[in-house]
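Q: Structure tokens for this one, please.
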Amino acid sequence: MSMAMQVHAMAALLRQARVPAVISTLLAAAALALLVVLPPGASAVAGAALLSLLAGVGQACFAVRIGFDRALLDGLLQAHPDAAPDPIDAALHALGLRQAAASPRDWPLRWQGMCRLLRGQAMCVLLQAATLLAALWLRLAA
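A: Here is the predicted structure, written as tokens:
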């Protein structure tokens, strides 16, 4: 597979990060609704709901970074169809977003980093769902 096709594939994979972001938004709305209807003194339920919201904030941070990487890949493919990674590092360095590296990162290292971001996002959504379920269970058990 050509390098340009690999970059297209990774950009397409990064676009799929929208699905967990939407799920996270729905979970956050449910956690907020639960907090609104809580009676005074339900601190365990409130704590679990707040932890769910905090995991949602973590997911949002991952989503922003994933969106940035996706936009970089899309821009690279438009400006440099040969899909060499050097223009990304040069642009980030010129904008002050990255220090000049002694050795440029190759695509396999970049793929690993992008996959770590996707896994981090998924873990935040799972934590968000688990803590919301715990809050609901505590609410029903009380």
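A few notes: The CA atoms of residues 47 and 116 lie 28 Å apart. The two ends are 57 Å apart (CA to CA).
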